[in-house]
Structure formats: C-alpha cells, structure tokens
Amino acid sequence: MSVDLKADTSQSNASVMTEKSNGSHHPNLITSITNKYPSYRDDLLLKTPHFWLEGRREDDGAEGLWRIHDTLYDLTDFAARHPGGPSWIQLTKGTDITELFETHHLTTKAENLLPKFKVREATEPRNIRLTFKDDGFYRTLKRRVREKLSELDYSPVKTSNLIIDSLVASALLFAFLAVKFNSYLMAAACGLCINWTVISAHNYFHKKDNWRMRLFNLAFFSYREWRVSHAMSHHHYANSVLDLEVSYFEPALCWLPNPDKGLVQRFGAWFYGPILYSIMMLMEYLKRFVESYKLGRNTFFADDLIAFILPTFMYLVDSSSIMTVLKLWIVILLVTSFLFGLTGLNAAHHHPDIFHSGDKIPDEIDFGVYQIATVIDRADVKGSQFAVLTSFGDHCLHHMFPTLDHGVLPQLYPIFFKTCDEFEYVYRECNWLHHIISQNRQLARIESRTYDPRAKLE
Fold first, then answer.
1. What's the CA gap between 421 and 402, in Å, rounded?
2. Is residue 409 within 8 Å of 394, Cβ to Cβ?
3. pTM exceeds 0.70, yes or no
4. Which residue of 139, 268, 351, 395 has the lowest C-beta tally within 10 Å?
C-alpha cells in the first residue's frame, strides 16, 4: 500500500524540462520545489518535527549556522534577544530559514540587523527553488503591505482575542453541563467549542510568544510541534515533499499525484478518512511517546499537561463517577478531532487544480506565486471574523503574512488584488462543499498536471 514518492520525485528532479508549444518556448518546468529529496521523509516513525529539522540540517547547506538566501549567519547570541521568542532561533540552527525570515519580518528592521551576524557566503546553492526577487510578486506585495501597516485598523485584534476567550469559556460551560446532566449532546457541543478554540489558537502561535498560543494544547496537540510542522514546514512548502502535513498522513491519505497509488489509497480513503480525522489528535500525542523512546529523551513539556485541564475540571464538577467523566471526555476528544480534521484538511489545499508535488510548475517560482498555486480560499467564510478565525479562512494571505492577526488580513485584499492583476496571476475561491468533494477527488488523482498561474478555477 506504499507509494514510492522518492523514486518519482528524484526522477522528476533529475529531468528539468524545457517545453515548446506552437513554436514558442515555455519556462523550465519542475515537479518538486526541492533539489534534494528530504532526508527521513518516508520513515513512518521519523515523520516528526524533530526529524524534519534534522533532515533540513542535512539537506540545506547551512553548515551548522543559519542560512538566509545565499549567506550564512551565526545567530547564537541573538536568540535570547529575539523579539519573537528564542525558540524560533534555537530550533532552526543549521537550517535554511529564508522563507521563515521573509514571511515573519514585514519591516526592514531585521534585515538591517543581519550584517552584524554574517559569517560568510554559502558554498552551495539553495535546496529550495522558491525565489524572492526584488521585482517579483512577493517582494512587491510585501513592500506595499509594509507601506500600509501604519494605516491599518488593528481593533479587530481585540475581537480575535474576545472570540477565542469566549470559546474557552463556552467549552468549560458545556463541559460542566455535560457532566451535570450526563449529556453526550453537551459533550459534543463542548467538542465543537474546543475545535474552534484550537483552530483560533493557530492564529497566535505564528506570533511572538504569548499565552493564547498554548490553548492549542487543549486537545493533545502541541503548539511547539506545530510551530515546526505547520508554521515552518506546511506554511512555506505546502503540498510539497517538505510539507509535514502531507507526509504525516501517508500512506493512508496520499494527496500527491502518483501512478503507483493503489485503489484502496485512491478510493478507500474516502471512507476511512473520516475515521482518521477522529483519532488524529490522540495519535499525534501517542506518536510523541514513540519519539521519546527512539531519541532516548523526554520530548514532552509542562504545557502538554494543558490537555488534561478539561477532564480535571469535569471531575471536580462531579467526582461521583470517574467512568462517566471519562466517557464524556472521550466523546469531546473524538468530536474535536473529527471536526478539526474535517475543517483543516478541507480548508484550502487539496483540490485537483492546486499544485501538488508531482505536478509541473515553473522552476525558480516566486514564493508568493507558489502560495497562490497551492491555495484555493474558502469564499463562504469571507466577511465574518468569527468564521475566518475558526475555519483557517483568508488562507492565502495568512500564508504570506502569518504574523498579522486574522482580523487584520481583510484590509490587505485591495493591495493583494492589485498586485495579482499587475502580475496577471489568478486568485481562486470556492465554497467548503466544493473543497470537501475536491479533496476526495485529489486523493484519487494519479495523473500529473501543469499548473498555470493564470488559469481560472474549473
């Protein structure tokens, strides 16, 4: 039931093609944004943030330092003074942080500081084929956003805070009612609120360290793990072989097109996929026990105990029957996990018209254009800050400017649309039902396609 992605990707990387059509030359086309196939990617037990970073250290040519574009820096002494928190710097030592640096620093302050930490130029080219040319799409858009920052209305940030705080309070209320009345309906309502809380907390772990990011841990997830698997991996390299949120689910759910996918992987996933949604949170927690064993050291932190706040609260409400509390808590976890999977895996990325590794895309593609290539936004949540915050909405802009609060992003659309028009790139949207149907179509897809940044949604 396994798919030999490595062989397929290595072969495609080895043959960068120049195509001709009606006598006119097209750009060189590639089927992967990396020059090297990622180390450790296909080992089932090594699909973790720790080994993803270890693989980057082997593949990135950073020589034990921090690589940004084609220059190596030593940020060791700066880590403790990093405004976003030391972990961003400490975790990424020995890797190429170009994309992370570009998207998390909208002003030029960080760029102006870099020369102080320069060691030397890198000795080999970047492994990642995404570009940040000054006259390219992303840098152009970023300059325009930077100029707009002082004019933005930041009051929606308070609304985001109010939404997530209210969701936590609502979850506790429904947990209280579930225990008091032994009600599975109230437990399901609690699960819905926890799901919305966890998704909303994702808005916060992209920012500098803050207490709301820890709410992500309420249902056995870890914001520490997701700062790697989501903020570092998925956000910059969506749908590529570097995307942990794709490789995590293989070989059960295979979104990358590959002729070696079996019938069970292609069509059986339509039926067992929802079951995986329901247990994905618990499985990620259990996976960390396995990782601790393999590494010979503890990979858990004190904030992982946040996952047990809810059942502890429920037990304090009514300690007469621990089995009742346990059953209701399991219902809450299953509902939370299922809704998170249903929302997250059908949010923006898995549609047959979206680029996935194995498809053909122009080489040295601009970072911003790549984000457009790998996203189709949900049109049905636009205009509602609550809906956007609890459904991974405004997804394309969030990938490009993750440190900005979701509530602020809608103000960037006029600039974004103007830049898309100038570069003649098509921004695409569809509703959630379309995404759900198309995600299953993508699971079944085996043929390679050529992504056209100027093509409209079919």
1. 23
2. yes
3. yes
4. 268
